[in-house]
Amino acid sequence: MRSFLICLGLLSILNGKSQSIDYTLRMGAPHTHYLEVEMVVSKLSGKTLDVKMPVWAPGSYMVREFARNVDFFEATADGKKLPWKKTDKNTWSIATNGSKEIRINYNVYAFEMSVRTSFLDDSHGYINGTSVFMYVKDKKNLSGKLTIEPHKNFKSISTGLTYISNQNGKFQYSFPDYDFLADCPIEIGNQEIFSFNASGIEHEVAMYGEGNYDKERLKQDMAKVVESCTKVFGENPNQKYVFIIHNLTVGSGGLEHLNSTTLQVNRWTYSGSAYTDFLSLVAHEYFHLWNVKRIRADVLGPFDYDKENYSTLLWVLEGFTSYYDELLLLRSGFHTQSEYLSVLSRIINTVENTPGAKIQSASESSFDAWIKGYRTNENSVNSQISYYTKGQLLGALLDIEIIQATNGSKRLDDLLSYLYQEFYKKQKRGFSDVEFRKAAEKIAGKELKIFFEEYVEKTTAIDYEKYFAPLGMTLKKTSREKEIAFGARLTDSGGKLIVKEVTKGTSSYESGLNVNDEIISCNGFRVDQTSFNKMIAASKIGDEIDLLISRDNIMQALKIKLLPNGAWDHQVTVLQSTGENQEKLRMKWLGN
Q1: Is 70 exceeded by the pLDDT of residue 3?
Q2: Are strands 186-189 and 125-127 parallel, antiparallel or unpaired?
Q3: I want to staple 223 with a disulfide (CB 3.0 to 4.6 A). Which of 198, 259, 271, 324 is the partner?
């Protein structure tokens, strides 16, 4: 019976009985940065048709108002223009006049080169679906096809969309619903394409821009990262995966998608420590295949593209992914154990020495991502902590806690695998905060009250020895009180020494130096950034220095008393003498 119904459904589609939506994407003049989009919506009923442009891109938690880039809009039926009006910032309402099929044409200005937006010039086009494709209100479930007509100078297309055909240079792809279309970035141009196989999956790599990359090395190293990610979950959910990599002067990181990712990096990043950082970025975005795209908070899918989708679990979704992007390099052989512990030490230093970590909790940081995380300002260091950084640290601590509680029989991998199997595969949904905590306690076999209620929901000081001692490790703390804490980040802007940030509890903060002040002289001597740094280095704690500053072009004398640095250096180290069980638990955590 089930097979019969499926056949009827397919026959219905083939006979045109099912409503669908088709898009055509053109780029007739790439140097103008305009993408030309055509939508054809058929099998209509009703007096109006509302189409909408998303205001944000999933994975990047800030409202970006993509509708602002739409410069032309027109709707027609049978060759005649239809009346329309905007009913809000991202909705176009069309009077159908009884038409059963409507053709919609609009232009999108695309000249913001980031992993979250779209870009077009005479060298290539990059499409991020939410910033280009509109959808029919309440009809995001419509399937359809996308036809891409590249500019005559562009020969290649790379995307995770399902390929149908290429007819006279018109490339056709299918999609099951809008979410899938929006979640498949597209690279159009003359990119270099190569592939590798890992975990039984074909991986395509599309390289835009010149760089010092070695294709054969990348094939081997990226495959190792892929296999380490897959081992955490025991299976890979894709048949094919696409890496779109932009080699630029200034990169903007990466953004995850259901069966692909976009990475933007400096073009000379493929050697030395920068190359290790690149592999960490590969691991991060690939790990999102599971954590975020399939293991997700219940509010993050199906998406509401009209407004913010609030969650207090980004410390898990992004923070745990950040934890694994370094841990997997250890498992893949790109980090030694000592190098990994140095990475973890730096994370602890960042959290413990950021004043905002004592103000904002991990859950608060997650919830406020929309208004704070992507909109940092000169005071952010004093008022907030990144859910990436705090979540990375919490991921390490929860991993260790599970290892200790189960005497090495389970770890964080088991929790993520459970979430993948139980919520994504079995229940086919996301989970709530309460469900995540229950799952963690189920895997640990114990209550995790302190971890969740003190370290996640509050800013309580972390008892590191509780975590490290059972693994034969310790956290060494070294005071920096012999150093001067000047506490202002300065930049040389057009020959002017400008204050860009002032950190709470430091000399500058306590003495009243402000952001945007221009430092003209110190102790009677005109200074630039180099000479000023030398004068501070030659001073002693307790000294007072006399600054002449310009604040809003008004000269002002300011005395700065130089205070000791209240920060600490933290270093995770292995004890020289450890017991057998400590060795066992540590190897469970750090063993390859």
Answers
A1: no
A2: antiparallel
A3: 198
Burial 130-155, CB ≥16 within 10 A → b, else e = bbbbbbbbeebebbbbbbbbbbeebe
CA angle (277, 279, 361) in 5-degree steps: 60
Buried b (16+ CB within 10 A) or exposed e, 8-43: eeeeeeeeeeebebbbbbbbeebeebbbbbbbbbbe
Instruction: Give every CB contact of residue 426 below 8 A, 6+ residues apart in sequence.
Output: none
What's the CA gap between 424 and 293, in Å, rounded? Answer: 10
Residue pair 65/91 in contact by the 8 Å Cβ criterion: no
Write the secondary structure of 334-355 as one string of H (helix), E (strand) and C (coil).
CCCHHHHHHHHHHHHHHHHCCH
Question: pLDDT at position 591, please?
Answer: 86
Which residues are bridge partners to 159 per DSSP? 186
Give residue 591's identity as a one-letter amino acid code: G
Residues 6+ apart with CB under 8 A from 293: 256, 257, 258
Asked if residue 5 has pLDDT above 50, the reply is no
Domain 488-561 has CATH 3.40.30.10: no
User: CATH homologous superfamily for 314-470?
Assistant: Neutral Protease Domain 2 (1.10.390.10)
State whether residue 233 is helix, strand or coil. helix
| Structure confidence at residue 6 (pLDDT) | 38
Q: Per residue in 101-151, pLDDT tens?
A: 999 999 999 999 999 999 999 999 999 999 999 999 999 999 999 999 999
Residue 242 in this model has a pLDDT that exceeds 80: yes
Helix axes 580-590, 387-405, angle to 10 degrees: 140
User: Where do the H-state alpha helices sit in 288-406?
Assistant: 314-317, 319-332, 337-352, 362-367, 380-383, 387-405
Share the mean pLDDT of the chain. 95
Q: Are strands 496-502 and 488-493 parallel, antiparallel or unpaired?
A: antiparallel
| CATH number of the domain located at residue range(s) 15-189 in this protein | 2.60.40.3650
Asked if 200 contacts 307 with a C-beta cutoff of 8 angstroms, the reply is no
Q: What mean pLDDT is predicted for residues 253-264?
A: 98
Element (H, E) at 573: strand 568-574
CB 146 within 8 A of CB 23: yes
pLDDT for the residue numbered 592: 64
Q: Is the pLDDT of residue 367 over 80?
A: yes
CATH classification code of 192-287: 1.10.390.10
State the DSSP string of 400-465.
Answer: HHHHHHTTTS--HHHHHHHHIIIIIIIS-S-B-HHHHHHHHHHHHTS--HHIIIIIISS-PPP-HH
